[in-house]
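#lab-general

N.A. 3:47 PM
ok so I finally got the sequence cleaned up, no stray characters, all 54 residues accounted for. can someone with queue access submit it? mine expired

B.Y. 3:52 PM
send it over

N.A. 3:53 PM
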Amino acid sequence: DIFTVPASLAGIPGISIPFGKSQNGLPLGIQLLSKHFDEQLVLNAGLYLEKNNV
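B.Y. 4:20 PM
back already:
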């Protein structure tokens, strides 16, 4: 996702995940960021959202 590029360049771990659709049927997404060297938190949060269909 283009919006994760600045975080990547700054060395901040981030992930962008699909997050359902709006009332108009448009796709939605969510971006998760964390502090430096805390990739595991981002991955765990993304996995939680995916498994629980939040």
